[in-house]
Amino acid sequence: MEQLRMEHWNSTLGSGFLLTGILKDSGSPELLCATISALYLMALTSNGLLLLVITKDVRLHVPMYLLLGQLSLMDLLFTSVVTPKALVDFLRSEPTISFGGCALQMFLALSLGGAEDLLLAFMAYDRYVAICHPLNYMVLVSPRVCWLMVATSWVLPSLSALGHTLYTMHYPFCMSRKIRHLLCEIPPLLKLACADTSRYQLMVYVTGVTFLLLPLSVIVTSYTLILFTVLHMPSNEGRQKALVTCSSHLTVVGMFYGAATFMYVLPSSLHSPKQDNISAVFYTIVTPALNPLIYSLRNKEVMGAVRRFLGKYILPTQSTF
Asked: Shortest CA distance to 108 belongs to which of 70, 147, 148, 80?
């Protein structure tokens, strides 16, 4: 038996996997490919522009926009880990991914997804302090505290992702080489393992609940307290500004957490490959493309900074031709 396990293990190392993704199984693969390409281009352009604007404009060098810049960076990297590979695989007759490539993609996706998960909670805390305790804002969300939140968002999920990646990839895979998913993730890979993974699946479930529901509870609590404070504001203008900002944040939270919860919190018996693929497309491609638009289009400070940036760096260059 041990020899057989080693043969499967060596076979996996040598041959890698087949990522079938969502494009090959769709009814209109060409249309879906064009749509995903457009969303990826939108994500690159909007997140890249927002990141540049926040970096260049000193008016936006405050904790709220520092966290927003980190969100754009995470979205930019997250969608780039998944989308180019999916598009290239669609154009190839045999969409293979090596064992090491699968492990790397899993690690990066888990790290960036977890980082965004924590960052959204920290952004909710930032808005809570700004609206409910404005006089203490520079103390409770000082630059040091802000950078600590950023570091925590990157480091903790990376450590968790490393442990999960190493443990998931140590299994012998002998059921099939075909991963019926958009990317290398834990649930679809465990279906290919020729070993008992029930205990580890429970561990993945507990980790998923912890990483998703704890930050989500912080977000819900923060925005509930914000809502009570906003409703008691004497100024209609201040109330409207706070509601616009918070509604943008909650839209992003709803999109990201809804798809991620479906993938990692709901029992595997409720999943199907098609549903998992749609969920993965949503939080790896759709959400990164829409996040910058949701945050910037309804934010006068960001839109003003974008206009200043374009007027200073883009339009003068074009006028010289």
From this structure: 80
DSSP 3-state of 180: coil
The answer to whether 67 touches 117, Cβ cutoff 8 Å, is: no
d(CA 321, CA 314): 12
- Please say whether the beta carbons of 21 and 89 come within 8 A: yes
Q: Which residues contact 308 (CB under 8 A, 6 or more apart)?
A: 57
In this predicted structure, what is the pLDDT of residue 9?
43
Distance CA 171, CA 2 (A): 13
Query: 67, 62, 69, 50: which is closest to 134 by C-alpha?
Result: 62
What integer pLDDT is reported at residue 24 of this predicted model? 63
Question: Of 142-151, 181-190, 268-277, which range is least confident?
Answer: 268-277
Give the count of beta carbons closer than 10 Å to the beta carbon of residue 154: 18
Express each pLDDT in 77-89 by its tens digit.
999 999 998 888 8
Sheet with 96-97: list strands edge to edge.
96-97, 17-19, 178-179
Residue 96 φ/ψ, nearest 5 degrees: -90, 155
| Closest alpha carbon to 18 in 254, 177, 161 | 177
- 3-state helix, strand, coil split of the chain in percent (to 5) is 80, 5, 15
Residue 17 Cα distances to 89, 104, 172, 173, 280, angstroms: 12, 13, 13, 10, 18
Q: Which of 12, 10, 76 is nearest to 40 (CA)?
A: 76
